[in-house]
Structure formats: structure tokens, C-alpha cells
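G., before I forget:
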Amino acid sequence: MKPREDRFFRYFTGFFAALVVFAVVGIGFELSRQSMLSIRKFGLGFWTGTTWDPVSGEFGALPFIWGTLYSSFLALLIATPIALGIAIFINEVSPQKLRPLLSYLTELLAAIPSIVYGLWGIFVLVPIVRKLELLAPESLKKIPLFSGPPLGVGMGAAALILAVMVIPFSSSVAREILKSVPMAQREAALALGATRWESIRVALNYGRAGIIGAVMLGLGRALGETMAVTMVIGNNPQVTASLFAPQYTMAAVIANEFTEAADDLYLHALIEIGLVLFIITIIVNALSRLMIWNMARRSRPAVPKPIVSTEEAVVA
Amino acid sequence: MSTRYRLIKSNCILTLCALAVAVALVPLVMILFYVISHGAAALNLAFFTQIPKPVGETGGGMGNAIVGTLILIGIAAFIAVPVGVITGVHLAEYGGSRFASAVRFSADVLNGVPSIVVGIFAYGLVVLPVHRFSALAGGFALSIMMVPIVARTTEELLRLVPPSLKEGALALGATRMRAMATVILPAALPGILTGILVALARIAGETAPLLFTSFNNRFWSTSLTQPIGSLTVQVFTYAISPYEDWHRQAWAGAFVLVMMILILSIVARLATRRLERMNRG
């Protein structure tokens, strides 16, 4: 009787667990099925075309990919040093008593809903960005990065808001990684005469795979972020490097136009954008998990193998 | 490279790290300040009891949207809690198998799928076949976002239960199922409940997956097969509108939303402490 009940238990719980796998496979399948019209009609041209004209049935998605990649890249550029700084400060520098409060506060940033970020973005951040843009001297505006009229809404505002949203994710994973680096690593460096920062560098170096994983996890968040970006980026499909220019992202175009898509081809084009967004985030997240997992596995042994030579450790 | 230079460099960098914390706290303080000051100023009883007024009229509220959000997270919890907890049980009990690794990986992938993509999936699965936006579709989309969080917290907490408890139960002749249901699961319950509340707090603030699943509804509705309003979608609609009075209400909506999320997480903390004490006593 007992083994039978145990087997039932295993398959019963396994059935529910399988639903999770089915959900991931199902999303991929459903999105491919629903974007067939667009995939068949445009092929790879969909991803290089720059015209997005639902009325004449012409769909090119390059501006959206550009907007998503560019805004995420800029956001990481801003967020990564700040997130690492936070992780280092909370883990290695701050007084023990202050740590729970500081980590609670930074994690609170992750609890604020995207729509609230967006609301704040529209009414507070965008006016500030517009003022900054107005201050920009003429000579600066000749550079393509800062060209265009000072609207406030645009790539700059989107990158800033994304950076704020990504910081808590990257910094909390980076903290976990730093925590998992054996104390002996830092102590060895200190014993060899390293300064405090140099010993932290040894720790960072030891956990670098995990740190890269933390940054990529932030990237995954930034790529898929929808509401806040939709509300501040200006929603204008164009490929330009300018931070002042209103642009568009993949997630934003789906959010804005999905319910307006009158014909099937339009809808399928939007879902194809969703499909590619799905694939990109899966790849980014999978790579990030692998790096964090590897790191976690490696730092488990009681006597860890040092990965930096002593020579490296004392070099400032 | 003198020692002095290295010390100065070290101190400079550590100061920069402290500065990074300050920089991150600026937007946090600013957002909370604006949400509280603008939001609380715009709050009144009508906000909770009335439905949106037609364009051009001032006043009205988001009563229907508040109820809608509660219904949506209710549906999501109804689906996601059993699936998530049982998945977590499987992962904790049979975690070594290759299947379990695939499940764990899928849960992590699902957790990272952009919410807007989850919305498309729910649209294709629930909305398209019947050609109607519905509360059910919205709740389904939210449940997909909730399952991986519940599953992973459940697994983690079940693993924290001392193995001696399980061994004791098995030694007394209990089956694995019985040991799980009567010994291990109750021991981990406070933590699991906290995890569920935290997951609820996270999905309560979602907008993107609702845009084309539960859509929006300006009227009172509790029907699961009809479009339904939600705080987040209502705030979005009002925020991008050109009307001053709607902006005011958007802030009030954001305030209620943030309060809801904060209360959920505080209740989660209190519940954990309470249950822990009960368990011990």
C-alpha cells in the first residue's frame, strides 16, 4: 500500500510542477502561432524595416528593437556602478546596525509598482529633464547625443527611470554574491597589506561571474519593463542616438497599440515583437541564472580554492 | 605606488559607495513624497465609493477599480497558490531529479518573462477564443506571474524544516505524503504564507498584463466574464489624459495602490511573527 501512495504523491505533485514547464513552452508556442501571418509575410525584413504604418499594412520593427536595446544599455550604464556601490557599502562598509535598514530601503524601490514610477516620471522627472535640456549649451547640442528640441519626454528620461527600477534587483543579487565570498579571501588580502578597497576588489574578483549575473538580471528587467517607459519615452518610432529624442520600445508599442490593432496582420506584427522580446529575455535570464548558480556552487566548499594569485591581490 | 596613495584611493572609492546609496535613496524619497502629498490631498470618501465621472465632470472616484483589483488578485491567488505550493512541495521532495531541475529553471525563466508578454499569452488563451476581455483573463495572467514566486519560496522554506522532523514521521510509519501534509508543511506554513502575501503585493501593482486581458470598465462590475476595472489600469488611463482633475485622481490611485502594497507586506511580517509564536507555544 505504501509504495503506491508514495508513487501517487510523486506523480500528483509532479503534474502541478509540469504546469510550470508547460507555461514557458506554452508562451513560446502561443506567441509563435499568433504571429505566423507577420512572420510569413515579412520574414527577416520585419527586423530591418523602419516604417511602421498600420494603415498601409507596412510593418518594420527596427525602431522598437533599437529603443529597447538602447534604453536598457543606457540604464545599465547608469545603474551598474550605483548598484555595485550600494552592495559594497551595505555589505562591507556600513556599520552592522545600519545594514537591515539600508537594505530594506533599497528593496523598497523594487516594491513600488511600475505604474507609480510612470506617474512620477510624467509629472516630476520629465519636467526636471526638460529643464536640464533647456540648460544645455548650443555647442553641446551639436553632438548627435544631445541633438533635438528639449521636450523632456524621450530616451534620456526613459533611461533614468529604468536605471532607478533596475538598481534594487542588481544590488540585491550583488549583495548575495558578496556575502557568499568566503571571508578568508578578504582576510588574506588584508594580511598581505592590502587596503580595504583592495580587499573588496579581491572579493569582487572572486565573485565576478555572479556579479555579471547580477547585472544581466537587471538587464532582463530593463528589457521587459513596460509601463514606466511607455509613459516617459515619447512613443515615436525612430532610430537615433539622441537622448533628447522621443523614441519607442518593443514593450511600449505592444502596450499602446494592442487593443487598437484592427486587422489580423497588425495584431500578428505586434505579437511577433512580443515573441522576440520573450526570446531575448529568456536568453538573458538563462545566462544570468547560470552565472549566479555556478558562483553559488563554487563558493560552497569549506576550503575554497583561491582564484587570484597573491601577486594580483596586493597590486593596487 | 605609495601606501599613502593607495589609502587615499581606498577611502575615495568607499566614499563613492556611500554616495551611491544616497543617490539611490533620492528617487525613493521623491516618489514616496509625491505619492503621499499629492495622493493624500486628492483622497476623499467619494474616491472609494464612486465610479469615474464622464469626461468633463469633476469628482467621482475609483471604487469600482479598487474592487476590481481585489477580485483580480483573488482570482490569481485562487489559481496560483495551489499550483505554486504543490510545485514547491515536489521540488523540495524530489528536488534531485532532472525533471525537478527543468521545473526550477522554468520557474526562474517564467519569473523573468516580461509582464506584457504574459498579457499576450493570456489574451491568446482566454480572451481570443471567446472574443471578450474578462476578469478571468486578467486573473489568469496575474496567476502566471505569481506561480514561480510561490513555488520557489515554498521549496526554499520546506528545505529549511529540520530533516529530523521528516525522519521522525517516516520512522513512525507515515508515508511521504502524510509526513509532508501533517508534519513538514505545517512547520513551514508561516513562511509560505508570507511568501504568498509578498507575491500578492507584487502582482497587485501590475498594469501591463491587464491592458488587454481584463481591459478596463468604468462601471461597477463583479462578473468574472466581463471586463473589469483595476486601480493600475485606471491610474494609467488618467495619467496620460489631458485633464487636471484626472491627474489628481491618478495620484490618489497611486497612493491607495502603494498603501495596499505596504499593508500587504506589513501583514506578511506580522503574520509570520504571530504564527511563529503559536508554533513554538
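Chain A touches chain B through 85 residues (CB under 8 Å). Residues 264-298 of chain A form the longest helix (35 residues).

More on Monday.
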